[in-house]
Description:
By secondary structure, this protein is mainly alpha-helical. The protein is built from twelve helices and four strands, in the order ββαααααβαααααααβ. The longest helix is centred in the last third of the chain and has 36 residues, at 230-265.
Amino acid sequence: MKQPNVSFQASNDDDGSVDSNFDPEIPTIATSRSIDGLELEAISTALGSIKYDAATIRAEFKTYQSILPDPDELLQEQHSFTFLRTKIQKSGIEVPRFLKYNSEGGVKPHHAICCLLLSEYDAEQKQGNKSTGCKIQVYPLLVWILSFGYLHNQLNNPAEFIRDQFNRVAPAVPTETVNPIALRKKIKDRGLPVPNYFLDPDDHKQFPPHIALLVILQDGEKESRKLNSTLNRLTFASFALIALLLRIVLEVIGGAGAIWGGAEVTGLRTADNRELWRWISVAVGVLCYLRFVTLNAPQREDEGDILGPAGPWSLRLPVRLRAVCDHPFHYFVRALPPSSPSKKKD
């Protein structure tokens, strides 16, 4: 019996399908000639196709800055696009473009935050290329040395956390306007972690990009200084340290002590085998310590999850205290090394 001749032909119509392997090359900072060689239309200075640059975003911000909640409240409440838009309209102030609809000439929030943060990334990279000095910070260096290079200083300020996540993926961010799905794909294709504000809205770790943008803008105007105040830092650092010590007492020393005391209560420990039970208690204590380290040692996957999507200040106070109490070690250190704009190669 003659078999039908079945064949498949490639078609450009499949380029946009969900399961297509087609991935057109989109310009990024990494694929451009250099930062200095980027054209004026590039996103390092402006999203040319939508005529919206970092200076415009900052100028807009000054018009509605006074009616916004504090940075920590913005992150905790995660006010919706519509809520903020309505709040600004009721104040008689023109709505910024990233809160406008397409029909009004609006710009997607993820485009706006890419524009703003890539301009900062570009400026930091150029400044880094000109800088010849090396600024050493004692605490981060001490953490790095004591952990044999495994742990690094934690970022508890939301704006620093947002910038750190972006700087890590900046070389993969297209210099053209793309939809969020394409943006996430470009980042993932480079083997990089997707920043929380670029995640799918259904992801529990996601927080809206327009909130991240506003937090960055408020930080530029020094509105987030209370988050870095000495009192706040000492209060939460003390709470985290006490929580850490209590967990060691309960989970490590308590385990060894339970064996020692339990053996006496049950009559298993006597004057003749006292030394044996001491070593058994020590062995159990070592096992408890290993369990403690396994459960509490920071991992790269913990970023933007255990202590909130943008650090502890992105959680309401009761939830923040619980998160720090559950994971006190994470308040001080993290496994992911800090990101910084890579210097331009000659």
